[in-house]
Write a structure and sequence with these properties.
Length: 308
Amino acid sequence: MSESLERLDALAAERGIKLAADAPLGPLTTLRVGGPADRLVTPRTRNELLAALALGRDAGVPVFVLGNGSDLVIADAGVRGLVVRNRARGIEIDGTTVRVSSGTPMAMLVKRCTAEGLTGLEFGISIPGSVGGAVWANAGAHGSEMRDVVVEVEVDDGGTLRRLPVADCRFAYRESRFKHAAEIVVGTSLRLAVGEREAIAAEVDAHQAQRRATQPLAEQNAGSVFRNPPGDHAGRLIEAAGLKGHRLGSAEVSTLHANFILADAGGRAADVRALGDHVRSVVAARFGLELQYEIEFVGDWAPARVAA
């Protein structure tokens, strides 16, 4: 890896791309734990994003794209290779079609669509990540998902830009083709509808109020830890298993919403993962159902600690 990083540094210098070495990643996530990136680059435009992806490919180093830092746990040992902190933002509106860059925060997009009187994306105010991450995970809330509004997704596939219609994205519950391919989401096109601005704003406000009342937003967390099993809710199962408030080291199951794990300031990612694994085992023993992680574990984890 050291030779690859030297090659990466040399190529970045040649191309005028600024890299940060041993850059802390915890502060860039909502959980706020985890170790450093070998190298970090922060593109702020579409062209800078494409250049950063090309840099990693040409240097032969692993590349991980980081959005708003929600729904993931960075390993205490950090992330090897190049982390691309995607801040490529942009929103273009043409009638009811919205074209948006992948680094745009979902909240920013929802507020812009609300101001334009476009309806269909109100649910997105409850998604704390970026548009790219939301597409990648087919994120959803309040009974709606990204696949309900996505028309087309632009990807960087090994240096080739392609546009995929929604039918080719293989969207399912918290799933898409992008979770299983080397394609990086660069942007997406959405199809919304014309609505009444006041009604749209009222629905967005209602979603925000519900989220504030039911989720531990003021505390360090990565969002919903587990996917909801068919016909049930992960939070209900965890609470029924008596695990609300259960603590392991620097991590604790939220007493407000059992499907959230909180981390202490200066806490360890290993504690968060160990507590998540413990919750899974207790729920499996109690109800005969194995919860599946919704959050992603990223970075240099020990081989024995691979998420199911």
